[in-house]
Amino acid sequence: MRDLVARESGCCSFFTFTVSPGPGEIRLCIEVDAAHEAVLDAVQERAAAAAGRDVPRGTGLRSGQVAAAAGVNIQTLRYYERRGLLAEPDRSPGGHRIYNEEAVTALRVIKAAQRLGFTLEEVAELLKAGRHGRPAPGLQDRAAAKLAEVDAKIADLTTIRTTLAAAVEAGCDDLTVCASNACCPIPFSDLAEENHHAGPC
Q1: Which of 32, 73, 117, 176 could be joined to 36 by an S-S link, Cβ 3.0–4.6 Å?
Q2: Closest CA to 102 of 123, 127, 82, 137
Q3: pLDDT 10s digits, 96-122
Q4: Cα separation of 29 and 16, whole Å?
Q5: pTM more than 0.85
């Protein structure tokens, strides 16, 4: 076994070998990165053919298939696993991650929730609640809270836009000069002022 691992490591540096001795057997696990999965597939098929058995097909989705179906990359898939957003997948006899269709759905849910402004921590709580069938904290409550956040941000941005538009219209070009000019629309004296109207500087 040591000789085999040494030879293959020298030949294929992208292989990672894990030897696990046990009572009456020695188990060898071989893993590769996503870019070389096809190489390991071919090795597995040859080993299965030599042993006179077939490699099971259609039992799940590989990392690349899941990532492509959900519109993410492999690194994002791994990151979500580390964050606990995706359940740890099963492993094939060759050591590959094997996912079910629920993983694709979970990834699409994560992406949709992020587009709606939810953080990954909030997404994790929503997914956790859904997995345990708990009605709260559910989407309704969290969506209402997120809506209030969005409304507050819109109000702040509207105030900023109004002030910037007034500064452009007044011809403000130097903050130092404007700071000492009482007619400047930029609220230097009171940054919380929302309705500051003044003539051209």
Answers
A1: 32
A2: 127
A3: 788 888 888 889 889 988 888 889 988
A4: 8
A5: no
Q: Which of these, 58, 147, 60, lies nearest to 96 by C-alpha position? A: 60
Signed CA dihedral, 185, 188, 189, 190: sign only? positive
Cβ contacts of 137 within 8 Å, gap of 6 or more: 125, 126, 129
Q: Rounded CA gap, 158 and 94, in Å?
A: 57
Q: Give dist(CA 9, CA 7) in Å, integer.
A: 6
Element of type H or E holding 104: helix 101-115
Structure confidence by residue, pLDDT tens digits, 142-180: 888 888 989 999 999 998 898 888 888 888 878 787 777
Residue that the structure tokens 């580390």 belong to = 82
| pLDDT at res. 181 | 76
CA 39/CA 156 separation, integer angstroms: 55
Q: Answer yes or no: are the C-beta atoms of 142 and 157 closer than 8 Å.
A: no
Q: Which position has the token pair 């109207």?
A: 197
Is residue 70 a contact partner of residue 62, using CB atoms and an 8 Å limit? no
Nearest to 201 by CA among 188, 190, 185, 193: 185
Length, in residues, of the chain:
201
- Is the alpha carbon torsion for 82, 101, 143, 161 positive or negative? positive
